[in-house]
Write the structure tokens for this entry.
Amino acid sequence: MLVEVVLNLMIMKKIKIMIIKIKMIKIKAKMNIMMKIKKKMKMKMKMKMKMKKTKVQNKKFKDLKYKYSGIVPLLFNLIGKEIPIDAEPIVNYSFNILILSIIALVSFINLIGYYTSIYLINKYNIDNRFPKYKKIINYYEKTNIYFIYFEIILCLLALISLIILSLMVLGIFTIF
């Protein structure tokens, strides 16, 4: 009988330990769920804050009266011509084409300067004076110089005509 009581006590103790372990597992599961909920709530709060900041920034940009940036609109203001904000789409289109054409023209003028420098290097025999750069100079001598000149003239004519047509559509340049 004493043995039965001791066995019952041991079984009861094991049952209590198992119950405590089960409760601990449940508590850990609840804690994990609570942590996940807290993380999600923090993320939602961060997203709301970002959305508020974005709305404020968008509102600031909507309040701006300027539609273009750069030096070209400044030059037009110095001339006395101004592109209105509520202009027709064709005017905005031609203004953007004008800006792109001017950029392309400046880039192309740089290309002409580059090839002119190659011509001057050949004219004054720089490759003999500086043998260190002979390989680079020989590489560029192999290009067909007449083809390059023809291409330069053709593209300059196209870009200049684009700029003149854009200026005519904007009303800044008139022939008559």
